[in-house]
C-alpha cells in the first residue's frame, strides 16, 4: 500500500490512516512531500517528525503498529520501486491531498514520486484514493477532481460525519481513516456501523 502525505491541512488523518494500515499488517510505502513534512510538524508538533514516525505512531496508537512495515521514499526519487507499474503495490491513498497535487494527478504530470506513483495506479487500473482538503473550492479544483474520478480514482473528501457522536479529534480521524481503509479494501472497526439509530 502506498501512502502519500502532502501539504494540505489534516496531518492527523494521515497519521491515523498510516497507523491503521500498519495495525492491519500492511507493508506501507510512504512518501511525504516537502510541505507534507511542514504540516506534520505544524499540526502535530516536534514528535511527529518524519525521522521518528514509528515511535510517534506506537506512542499514540499502541504497539499494534509493529504488525506492518514502513518504507520511506524521497519525493524526488523517480527511480524508486513504486515509480514503476512492475511494483506489486495494490493501492495508494493521498491523504491529505493538496490542490496542487490534485491538479498534478489530474493532468498526469508525474514530476515527483507522489505524482508518478498516482499516475501508475491510474494506468494500471489499481485503487487510487484521493483525500482532498480545501474549502471553498475553485472551479479548476472542482474540475480536477472530476478529471481524477473519470480516470478511475476515488475522491474521498476529508469530511468526517457526526452521526457516530464524535467526542474528540481522534474520533474524527478514526472515521476518516476507516473510510479510507474501506476504500482500499480492508475490514476494520474504526467507527461504528450505522444501525439506523444514533448511538447513545
Ligand atoms: C499551514 C498550511 C496549510 C495549508 N493547507 C492547505 C490545504 O488545506 N489545502 C491545500 O490545497 N493547500 C494547503 N496549503 C498549501 C500547500 O501546502 C501548497 O500548495 C503546497 O505547494 C502543496 O505542495 P504539495 O502538494 O507538494 O505538498 C497549506 C500550506 C500551509 C503552509
Question: Can you describe what's shown?
Answer:
With 200 residues, the protein is of the alpha/beta class. It is built from seven helices and six strands. It has helices at residues 11-23, 34-44, 53-61, 99-106, 113-123, 139-150, 169-183; strands at 2-5, 27-32, 69-73, 91-97, 127-132, 154-155. Strands 3-2-1-4-5-6 form a six-stranded parallel β-sheet, with helices on both faces. It is globular and about 45 Å long. It binds flavin mononucleotide. Residues 6-9, 33, 35-36, 38-39, 42, 98-101, 133-134 line the site of flavin mononucleotide.
Order of neighbouring strands in the sheet with most strands: 3-2-1-4-5-6
Label the overall shape: globular
Whole-number mean pLDDT: 96
Distance between the termini: 35 Å
Structural class: alpha/beta
Major beta sheet summary? 6 strands, parallel
The number of helical elements comes to 7
Which value, in Å, is the CA radius of gyration?
Answer: 16 Å
Note the run of SSEs as H and E: EHEHHEEHHEHEH
Return residue spans where pLDDT drops below 50 for at least 5 consecutive residues.
Answer: none
Per DSSP E runs of 2 or more residues, the count of β-strands stands at 6
Beta content: 15-25%
The helix fraction, in percent, is: 25-40%
Q: Which ligands accompany this protein?
A: flavin mononucleotide
